[in-house]
Each structure stands twice: as C-alpha cells, then as structure tokens.
Design a protein that fits this description.
By secondary structure, this protein is an alpha+beta fold. Helices cover about 30% and strands about 15% of the residues. It is built from two helices and four strands, in the order ββαββα. A hairpin with a 4-residue loop joins strand 1 and strand 2. The longest helix is centred in the middle third of the chain and has 17 residues. The relative contact order is 0.19.
C-alpha cells in the first residue's frame, strides 16, 4: 500500500488512512488540512465547478462539499480530511 497522494509506501509513513481503493498518509492529511485552512482564509468557496469533481474517499460531488484537495488523479474533501485527521490522531468520536 502507498499513499495515493504522494506515493510514499506504508512503511515510510507514520499512518495511512484507507478509503475505497485510495489511501492518504499522515503527512498528506496535515498538508491537506493546512491547504484547506489557507484557502478558507484567502477566499470563500466559489460554488459549483463546471466539471463534476468528486471526493475519492466518500464520492460526494464538489457541489456538496466545502472544498476539494487534489492529488494526482485523486481528491479528498474537507469532511474526509477531518475524518482522516482524527484517524491519524487516534480519535474515534
């Protein structure tokens, strides 16, 4: 298994969170959270995109989420970033 975003193998990362056929490592979760926070501080979400993009983890379309973070042929929404962040931190609430 490797992180679908950065390509790092399981043994090279501290944690790897699984989605349906996709994975995100702890470093990419941290990066995604930072990117979401920065994007929110710079500009509000711009509404519905012209192309129907979906989260690779939950399959929600971009119009149903606040933000999408893109990797190579993979995307993760703000909600899944929160869940992955909690999983990496060992929280289950």
């Amino acid at each position: 298994m490797t992180c679908t975003f950065c390509g790092e193998p399981r043994d090279a990362v501290s944690a790897l969170v699984a989605g349906p056929g996709v994975y995100i490592c702890d470093s990419c979760v941290t990066f995604a959270r930072s990117a979401l926070e920065e994007a929110d501080s710079v500009a509000p979400s711009r509404g519905t995109p012209t192309v129907e993009l979906r989260c690779s983890f939950c399959s929600r379309p971009a119009r149903e989420v606040r933000r999408l973070i893109a990797g190579p042929d993979v995307r993760i929404c703000d909600g899944c970033v929160r869940l992955a962040s909690d999983a990496v931190a060992g929280r289950t609430d």
